[in-house]
Each structure stands twice: as structure tokens, then as C-alpha cells.
Inverse folding.
């Protein structure tokens, strides 16, 4: 089962078409029970338990989508953004942590 944090829906709609297609493909693989690994996805335990970061790229740049794996094969998409710096900004990490609490993962 997949869920998208309410505030994240608009973020996803603003992503380029190619990135949205790659996101849909990655989510479909997760729903099939497959695990994603680097370079496509990496665990982010410093952000939260079960949180991962999808690492997608197209000609316009690099994009990151945070998602969490919950119980009963639940996948929650938490935040999507265009990466503009080497390190993930602290404000993004805090936003994802807040959305985890809202999603009750």
C-alpha cells in the first residue's frame, strides 16, 4: 500500500515528467516487494527509522524523494525536492521528520 503525505502531493506534481515516471517505477518495484539499493535509493537512518532517499536525475538536475517503509508493506512518500547543494539541508530533514509524525509511521 502506498500513501503520499498530503503536502507532498503538490511537490510531486511540480517535478518534471521524467522524474515522476521514474518515481512511479520505483514505487511499483517497492510495492512488488523488491528492495531498492544504491545508486537509486539509500537508507537515511539519521532522518528516521525506515526512511530512505530516492536519488533521481534528469537533464534539468538531481531530485530527491524521501519515503518511509512502514509495517504491513506500507510505503509513505514524505517529501520531494530538487537537490541544489551537496548536503541535504537541515530544514529538509526536519520537514521529513515532521511528516513522519503526521503520517504515524
Amino acid at each position: 500500500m502506498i500513501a503520499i503525505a498530503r503536502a507532498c502531493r503538490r511537490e510531486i506534481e511540480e517535478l518534471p515528467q521524467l522524474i515522476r515516471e521514474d518515481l512511479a517505477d520505483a514505487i511499483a518495484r517497492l510495492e512488488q516487494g523488491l528492495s531498492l539499493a544504491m545508486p537509486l535509493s539509500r537508507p537515511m537512518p539519521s532522518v528516521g527509522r525506515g526512511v530512505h532517499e530516492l536519488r533521481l536525475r534528469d537533464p534539468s538536475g538531481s531530485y530527491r524523494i524521501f519515503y518511509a517503509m512502514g509495517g504491513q508493506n506500507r510505503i509513505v512518500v514524505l517529501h520531494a525536492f530538487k537537490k541544489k547543494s551537496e548536503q541535504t539541508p537541515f530544514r529538509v530533514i526536519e520537514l521529513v521528520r515532521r511528516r513522519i509524525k503526521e503520517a504515524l509511521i
